[in-house]
Every structure is written in structure tokens, then in C-alpha cells.
Amino acid sequence: MFYREAGDFKTSYRDDSQTFPIGFDRYRYYAVLVLAFAVVPFVIDDYWASAIFVPFLIYAIAAIGLNILVGYCGQLSLGTGGFMAVGAYACYKLMTAFPDLNIVFCILGGGLVTAAVGVLFGLPSLRIKGFYLAVATLAAQFFLVWLFNKVPWFYNYSASGQISAPARSVFGQPVTGAGVEAWAQYMICLVFAVVLAWAARNLTRGTVGRSWMAIRDMDIAAEIIGVNPLRAKLTAFAVSSFYIGIAGALFFAVYLGAVEVGEAFGIQKSFLILFMIIIGGLGSIFGSFAGAAFLVLLPVLLKNVLVGSLGWPTDLTAHVQLMILGALIIGFLIAEPHGLAQLWRVGKEKLRLWPFPH
Amino acid sequence: MTNRLAPLALGVLLAAGPAAADLVFPDLSYRTGPFAAGGVPFSDGYQDYFTLVNERDGGIGGVKARVPECETAYNTEKGVECYEATKGDGALIYQPLSTGITYQLIPKVEADHIPLHTMGYGRTSAANGKVFEWVFNYPANYWDGASVVIKYLMDENGGSLEGKKITLLYHNSAYGKEPIPTLEALSKKHGFRLTLIPVDSPGQEQKSQWLQIRRERPDVVVMWGWGVMNQVAIQEAANIGFPMDHFIGNWWAGAEHDVASAGMAADGYKALNMNRVVDYPVFADIRTHVVEKGLAAGDGSNVGSVLYTRGMYAAMLAVEAAKTAQEMTGTAQIDAAMMREGMEHLEMTAARMEALGMPGIGPEFTVSCADHGGSGMAIVQQWNAGDKEWVPLTDFIAPDAEVIAPLIEADSTAFAAENGITPRCD
Prior knowledge:
By secondary structure, chain A is mainly α. In chain A, 72% of the residues lie in helices and 2% in strands.
């Protein structure tokens, strides 16, 4: 009923294999894009930008990155926080070393440096997998955080060891530093998120993505049918780290403006992003967005309802919030181990048949 | 208090709440997480003093103070969320009690024109009011603290630290790293050897650090710790038999809960303090007007403790600045810009502190356009485990301005150059 396929004829392979084959879905996707680009920037205020949209978009980019590695290529990683730190510090070094370089290139540079570091730490994946690889990437997490804390060159010898983003602008509009407008902060994250999500979607259904999935599903079989494991695994690490690096650079430069590596990019961050893709759905771009939304928005929503509307004490709320979130995660994973994306897919299937189920 | 997100569930975006007639002092507190031990008493003291002013005096200049609380858990992302959630309410001043959150808020308050008071923490070079128009860190900052420790040790050792070994045990974060440049400068000046030992946040795991201390046998260990790190450090020091009276914490490592868990073993441990802890007459007022009426922020058990007193001191300085602003402008309904003026013209005299029922709680100081840092004086206190109380060992000690002033000048000038700020006050 809601998803009517009657009259929605596909006359070419191109039509048949598009991302949103059902018309209703496609138009809804366009509507979301129009809303995000043409409506939200005009109504957004500082609170909605800093507390909700900007962290949501940045975490979504990081989740897509991790999802490429874990969900599409099956290589378990716990180094996300460390790789985000690489993106942030690379971006910082570029911003301070080349003051005239446009911030967009600094962020992309942060991504590229992270891709290189990711490949380096991805090398063990050729020999080990599963939990062993998770431990190897965990080492990356701790090593990178330690490195950025230890070597003063990375934070330009500042007294506190913090890195602070200097003011930079895009088309004359400041996007980092003190004088940032809420909409500018939101727009730069939105552009990165949309372009990267679009690229990821197309990568994952092309040759590269199919080789990743072949490795994920059974690496020996994949090798027999001609997938080069070296190439597949290392491209997955490179692309994944590129995304995570960009998320780290945006997190530092646009969202917080100043970070302290242990606090902002600690092991907690790795777990948080891993939870995002597990709850959102492994191997799904939409799932990355859904998981990021779940873990960014729900705590804020709970806080505002419990403290703001019900007037509970803040410490009680903080504890109850943890319990509710934990219970919801367990509940979700019992009801639907494949995450929100699968829930959404099942819902869509049901709505296609509704009101006449078999 | 924000409830702007509640309508999200309904998919409706409501406008912000009605314009407030109160004076708003948001409290970005943390009552959960590894730093809650320090966050709870500070926040209790901060809130209770505003409640006292409301109950006893009918508010500040006749206008009630309102203190919306927001839990940050010492986490910078939550700190930013709390700041954005409360600033639209007409917030007059922010005191986040976290160096990490302070760094996030400095560019934001400069843009939003809301004063930020980071008392004894945050960015030290914010003491230069020429560059940091909206940030204040009176009465003292980290570099003052580092200098006061060294001055105290000089006095203890007959005026010379030549050849002594001093170890800085610090929280491996922006907070813990702040005193390093000062201590390095001082070690050059006075000829002591400085070793740096970091402890990763939150600090429960310090075995290897204390093994290193046992091996190196420093003459003095100076600690820059916070939260759970302090308790663990004092216990570990006791375990290796390090002499407690050669172990000095900074003012965030010198509260009752830091030493209590080690019991008698902590006897003799020293710490800085930027305020004195005595049974001030104001505590009696708080008990009558706040705790007994059931209006206390906590359960009232913290009244009079070190960090409760400091939270109350912070609130008192905010109230006095607000009063100064009201006198200057002639209006009781001040806004954040007027509040900033009030802070910049704040004068804390002994007579004023006595009139407020807390004689000698802090040093006398004045704030000016160029100097947002106050006098920088601090006392050294010692834990008497038998009586379970902190005994002051010294009067307020002045820091070594000769070393600190050029460091502040250099750091703030670099910040001004990076951010294109033209210094004011000339």
C-alpha cells in the first residue's frame, strides 16, 4: 500500500539495480535531501547544530567508515578512536603549517594521512583475523593516543597538549574557530556526509565492494574465484580509515574546536562507533546513519525529557540514562540482531504487502 | 532548564522558553563518573550559596538567582551540549570546573559574549585580559600554583633547592600538563632537577609510576591530580612508604575524600589551597536557611568540606561581581555583558569577605582590564589524619611573578596572533 510497485516498471538494467528501486523510497530520499539542504540550514540554531546535527553527521561518517571495514569486509577493528585522532592531528598540522590552505583540503588531507596509517595497521590482517585482528587494532588505538600525547611536535609544543583549531573559512564563511555560524558548521558536515555516503554506497556495489564482501563471506573461496585478498583487505582498510580520518578532522576542527587526545579519542570512542554499526546494522549505509542517530540523539533526548521536562536530579538521570540505553541496546539486539537497518527492511517488506499479507 | 528537545518526540519544534526574569547562573556540574568525588561537593557549595542568597537576602539586589544544573560527567562533548542548552536562558557566567571543557568554551564565550570564570583551572594565559576579554581565572591559576609550591619548598629547605630532585606526578591531560612550563622555568632558575611522570586518565592504575618513584627516590613529589587519581596516588605512596610530608598535591588534590580512604597512612600529606577552610559564620547561615529547609543541592553532608567551600567561594565571587555590575549600571536586571564589566571591576577586600561571613576565605585581590588573574596567592595545608582535618601551615604565599608574567605574555600573544585578536586596554 505505502510502497506501491504497480506501474513502477523497470525497462533497463540500470533502472533495475538502482539504490532505491521503489519509487516511493526514491522520492522520500530526495525529500530528505531537500529538507537537509534547503530547510534545516535556515531554521537551525546553535543548540541544534552543536548538540545534535553536527555530532550526528560526524559520527555517521565515522560509522560508514567502520562499516566498510567491519560490515562489508569482515575485518574486526577496535582502532576507530585512534584513527580519528590521526585525522584530527593531521588536519591540525596542515591547518597550522599552511595557513592559506583551504580547510576542505586540510580535512581531506587528514583523511588521506589516516588512510596511509590505516593501511599500515591493516597489514597484520593479511595473516590474522577475527579476535586476533581486533587486538592488533586495539594496539593501534593505544599506540596512536600515546603517540599524540607523548610527542610535542603533534600539538605544536602548546603548554597544555591541547590542539585548538584556528579560524578558517569556506567561500568567506568561517567554519572553524570562534565566529562560526550554526548553519555553516552544519553545512560543511552535511556536504561531507552526503558526498561520502553516496561514494560509499557506489563503492560497495561495484567491483571493489563485491570483492570486500567475498572476503567477508569466505576468504578462501574468494581467493579461489580470483579475488586478491591483499588488495581487497588493504583497500578496505584504506577507504575505511579515510572516512574515519575525515570524521576525526571534522570532529576536531568543526565540532569541538579544541581536543585533548586521551579524552576525545580514547577507547570509549572506538566502542561507541562499533556499537553504532552493530545497532544500526552491519553492511548497510543506512544502518550507519541509523546507528549514529540512535546513540547520539537518544541520550540527549532522554536527558531533556528526564531533566528538562520531569525535573529529575541530573546525577540520577545520568545513571538511569545509562541503564535505559543499555536495556534498549540489549532489547534491540535480541529482537533484531541485524540492527535497525534490518528492522527497516522488514518494515518496508511488510508495508509493501499491507493491508493484504499472505 | 531546557525542554526544547522533548517536543522532538512529537516532531514539533517549539520556540525557546519564555524570557526569564531571574539572574541565571548555570551550573555545569558532574556528579557521575571518575571525577564525581570532586564534582559533587563543589557543585553543592556553588548551588547552596545561591540558594542562601535567595532565601536570606531575597536574591542579588532584589532579583532571585536561578541555577539550572546540567550534568557533563567531565566529558567535553557533554559540556558543549550543556553550554548550548543553557546559554539561551540568559546565562550570566559559566564555571565548568574542567580544563578540557574550558578549552572548548573559550572561543564560544568570546563569540557569544558570556563571561567564563575558571577559578584555578582552565587556560592559564587567560589571566591576560588584554587578549581574553571574556575569560577570567582569578584568584589564582596553575602557574601560580606551581610557583607557590616551589616557593614553599625553598622556605622549607633554607632558601635553596640546588641539586634537589622534584618529581611531578600529573594527570596526562591538558589539566596535568599545564604546570610543566612553569616548573621547567623554575628548575632552571633554582637549580633543582625535575622529572615528569604522567598518569593516564582517570588514574586508577599507577603501580608502574610509583615503582619508578621508589627507584628514583625524589626529595619531593608534586602531584597534579583530580578525581580518583588522588586517592590512588596517596594509597600507592603509603604502600611504598614514601614520606607523606614530602608529597604535595595542588589545590585540586587536597580534599577530605582524597586522603580519607588511605586512613592513618595519609597523615602528613600536604596540598595547596586557594581558599582557607575554617568554620565560617556563613556555614551556620547555610545550615539554617538552606539545609534545614530542605533546599540543599546535595544531602547537606558536604557543608564545610574543602571543595564545598571552594564551590561556595566561586559562587560568592560570582554574586559579588553581579552586585558590582548592578552598582555600576544602576539596574538590577543585569545581562552577561554587564556581568563581565562587574567581574572586571571586582575588588575583594578583607572587609567585604568579613561582612559576608567568610573572613579571610581567600586573598585580597582586584581585577582589572589587563589583569584577569587576581593575586595568585595560595596556602599550603597538611592533613591531620587523627583529627580528620586540614591544618594550614602557611599564610597566603605570593607566586613568583618574574617567572610567570613572561610565560603568560608569550602564550597569550601566540593565541592572539593565531586568532587575529588585537589586544585591548591600551
